[in-house]
Structure formats: structure tokens, C-alpha cells
User: Fold this.
Amino acid sequence: MTFPAAKPGLVIRYSFLWSHEKDLGAEEGSKDRPCAIVVAAPRHENGDIAVIVAPVTHAQPDDPSDSIEIPPAICRTLGLDGQRHWLRLDELNRFAWPGYDLRSIPGKPGKYAYGMLPRPLFEQLRTAILDRQKAKAPRIQGRD
Assistant:
């Protein structure tokens, strides 16, 4: 199995664990979904890569400051369905790359990445997460 290199802005398919699922005792997400890598950094001398991902969801958030809507043209480029999509800022997962929860894209065995977010959208995501952290802490689920 060949996994893509973990790099910020890459949108992968991943079993994202929401905080409410973890609070109920779940160790794995109930649904595989696209997620954008926000951070990918070496964390040990052994070469492990620490990755933090933000989920992509169809659910419009109650608080607009908790997300960024992905423009339809970018969704099409990534191969996402025709519905509206949001990058969530308030829920993140952290894990060692590639981890156990990386998934193949449906209908594309062995392919784990949809593609890269355009640089301006990635910078908007990164900046929004940092700004949000100053206002209120995101819920980051460790998955190691």
C-alpha cells in the first residue's frame, strides 16, 4: 500500500472522530469523510509525522464562525459531491501518519487523497483555526 505524503492542504479520506462520539466512548468515527490536513510535522527521531486534520461536512454549522464554506468549484476539482461542504474549525483530530483510520476514496481502491486545497483557501483555514484558538479552544481528539 502506498500512502501519499502528508502535507498541509492535502484533503484525505479519514474516519474522523467527533468529540460527541468520543464522549460516548467511541474510539473510531462513525463515518469516513474528507478531511484537510492542517499540520504535518515530524514529532520524533523515529520519523513519525504528527498530523492534525479538519473535517469536511455537509452539515451547515449552527455558528458560522465554526467553519468555512468550500466554494463549489473547489469541491468539483476535489471530486466531492454536488452538495454544499464546510471545513470545520472547532473539531480537529490528531494522529500519527498514516494511522489506522486513513481510508480509500469510495470506488478508488488504494487512493487516499482527493487533492490539494488551493493555497488561498488553505491559508484561510489555517488563519481561522489560529484565530479561533485565541477566542476559544477547538476540540482536538488524539487518535494515537
